[in-house]
Amino acid sequence: MKKKVMGRSTRGRAPARRSDCPISGALDLVGDKWTLIVLRDLMFPRKRYFQEFLDSNEKIASNILADRLKLLECAGFVTREADPAHARRMIYAPTGKALDLLPALLELLLWGMKHHAKANAPEPFVRRAGADRAGLIAELRAAHGPGK
């Protein structure tokens, strides 16, 4: 039986697309709050372990986190490998497909800082995202490169 969480099937594949519109197709994959939060945590503070994602300020439930990580893995945004130091622990890492979302995530960050009065993010990071977006993206890509 297929498991559905908030309209998302995670039984070994990404959700079906509603249309051929590229924006709609992108939203089918990453358009809910929790998926974007997991991607943010994966790429900006470089969280790698399940427990690290659970410790985020948003307090994602463990079942929702497990579902989103599985969805992202099935859709090719995340890799999952056993931790060599602790075989029962898994390490999650972004793929090139996920890293291609960096410009969009940075735009969402800047938009949120501009339009949400109580938005909070590290000031040096926000300043860099606004002043040197290309350099920041290159640095983040390099930090997530092979073997990192």
Question: What does this entry show, briefly?
Answer:
With 148 residues, the protein is of the alpha+beta class. It has helices at 22-30, 33-43, 50-54, 62-74, 96-99, 102-115, 123-131, 133-143, and strands at residues 4-5, 8-9, 78-83, 86-94.
Classified by CATH, the class is Mainly Alpha
Show unreliable segments: 1-10
Shape from CA axes? globular
Summing up helix and strand content along with how strands pair, one would put the structural category as: alpha+beta
What is the strand tally? 4
Strand line-up of the largest beta sheet: 1-2
Q: Superfamily at the CATH H level? A: Winged helix-like DNA-binding domain superfamily/Winged helix DNA-binding domain
Mind telling me which CATH architecture this is?
Orthogonal Bundle
Oligomeric state, counting identical vs distinct chains: single chain
Radius of gyration: 16 Å
- Binned strand content: 5-15%
**How far from one another are the termini?**
37 Å
> What can be said about the biggest beta sheet?
2 strands, antiparallel
What is the overall number of helices?
8
**CATH fold-level name:** Arc Repressor Mutant, subunit A
